[in-house]
Structure formats: C-alpha cells, structure tokens
Amino acid sequence: MPRNDGNKAAVAQGGGRLGQRQLARQPSIKDIARLAKVSHPTVSRALQGSPLVNAQTAAKIRKIAEDTGYRASAVARGLVTRRTRSIGLVVTTVDDPFASEVACGIEQAANDFGYAVYLANSNADPQRERRVVQALAERRVDGIIVTSSRVGAEYLPMLAELDVPMVLVNDQYPGAFVHSVKIANPEGSRMAAEHLIALGHRRIAYIGDRSGYQSDTERLEGYRDALTRAGIAFAPELAVQGDGRPEGAGDAVRTLLALKDPPTAICCYNDMTALGAMRALGERGLRIPDDVSVTGFDDLFFAAYLEPALTTIRQPMRHMGQLAMDNLFKLLSGEVAVAQIKVDAELIVRASTGPVRAQGRGNRRG
Fold first, then answer.
1. Domain carrying residue 356
2. Helices marked H in the chain
3. What is the mean pLDDT of the chain?
C-alpha cells in the first residue's frame, strides 16, 4: 500500500468527507478540533502554548495542525490574545521626505518584531490628526506612532480614553507628553551657526517657519546662542520667517537682500527652506557660497545632489523611526520605556558654505 502524505494522514484520522474538504481549502480551528476530538478553545489554547492544555493533547493538536497545513490568521490570534500585531503610523504627508525616511525606520523595526504597519496622513492638520488617531485606535491597532505631531500634549487626556500606547517623533507642540523621540534642535542649529562664524561670517541670517512649531523655536534659540557665544549682537532684521517649504523661502530671501547691510550667510530652518533660498539667490545673480553661504537642517536625500551640495544638520531619520518603534514595543511588552529620547544632530559640511568674501558684497542686492 502506498504511503499517505500529511493531508491523507489527516483524512485517516478524521474521516473521508472532512479530509476531502481539507484538500480543497485551508483548514480551520473547527477542523482541527474535530480531528483531535477536543473543543475549539482547547485547540486555540494549545496553538498559543497555553499551560492549561496537557502536554500530550497539545502535542497531538500541533501535529494535526502541521499535517493539515493549518495556518493561524492574524485575526484569529487577535481574538485570543487581544493583540492585532499591528501599529498605526501617522505622518504629515506621504510625500514629505522627512516622514518617508522615519517611516522606513519604523517599518523595518516593526517587521523585525512581527508587526504590520498601517499608514495614515494628517495633512499637518491638528483636527485631522486627532480624527486619524481615533480611527486607528477604533480599528484596534496595538500602538500608534505620530511624526511631527501638531497635537502633542493634548494626547494626554485622549490616551486614558483610547487605551493605546503612543510614541511621538519630533513633536511640534511638546508639553508633558510621556513618550517621544526628537532631534537635539538647539544643539544642531548652534553647530550650523558656529560653522559659519568660524568661516568669518558676522551678518548671519535665519529663515524660520512662521507656523510656530517648537522645532523652529528651538532652532532659532540655537542660532542666537551661537551668536551670543561669539560676541555677535543679535540683529532682529536678520531673523525672518518662511513656511518650511521652498516657496516661502523666496520671499524671505528677497526681504533679506533688500536690507542696507544684507547677510553674508543664511541658516535655514530645514533643507526644503534652504532649497528655496538657494534658488532665490541664484535668480538674483548671487553665487553660493562666494556671495552668500547657506545651511539647511535635516540632510534630506537631495541635499548632497544640489549644486552646490548643501551644508546641513543631519537628522538620523531612519534611526529615529527605529527608536520610536523600539520604545513602542517596550510599552506593548510591559517593559520600562524611555520617556523622552533626544537624538544627537550632526553637522555635514558640503560646498554651500565658504569663507566670507568682501568682493561679493557689491552684488548682493541683485
């Protein structure tokens, strides 16, 4: 007589009609229970490794599951464990280069932990962000990570109601929020300004973000701190506002170049601002860095490919995403999680900055 394979072995134990159905579809817990002649809960407990099922019965159930090709679904596991093995990730916009890099780090770490990631978009709108977080919680994700949150500390009363662990990345309105990962904003901005000061610049401008984000406040603080340490008086007319995007930087540059004594260098709130500032300077016939030096903040993927390549402050974006997921996993596992993780910034010197040159001053107003 020919030897039976796994499915045929299951047929022999459970009868012909059940075995034929098994060959046509994926077996269920009910099928395993019938073959093992036990209840459905017993099968669930055995497959979860519960000590409530005796070793002999558990071994029999696992053998039947293996022979029939049974594979537990995530939904079924969730009904038993009250876990969906999924997290929600809220980003400002899906085309934001910063959020994209952070999301890659989160997804990589989540996959290592066996978690799926559901992506949602807040459009940098606080009300939409709240609705998205609420919707993710209602879909029973195990935890939520929010990048560049516009809600921040307001999550505190929501957390008690939602009962979902949450970690913020670069929270824009921090307060007493419990778990977050952020870059060392003041230190990073100070490094950029100190780099320009070391090159001989004294008229150094700062183009910020008029949205009132905490990151802008902290980066302006770092810029001013560098000036103070170097004995350079802060000039209010050199601190102007953009909108964090290339378009807003154009108006800011035109304002700076209209000054009687325009700057020889510009510290930008982020790389997107620096991108717009460099274009606006070029349109006025100014050379970078011969006439004006420019720095950014983030080290987005395009920074090294600009002409000239952008000197900037690097945020380890993927690493920050991994740290956020690591911390969220600790919360889910009942381990001690770090309340606030501050990541060191790094100055990346490229060709957009150089020594101050007096010969460029005559052209600077375009």
1. 185-311+349-363
2. 6-14, 16-24, 29-36, 40-47, 55-68, 74-81, 97-112, 126-138, 155-162, 185-198, 214-229, 246-257, 271-283, 317-333
3. 85
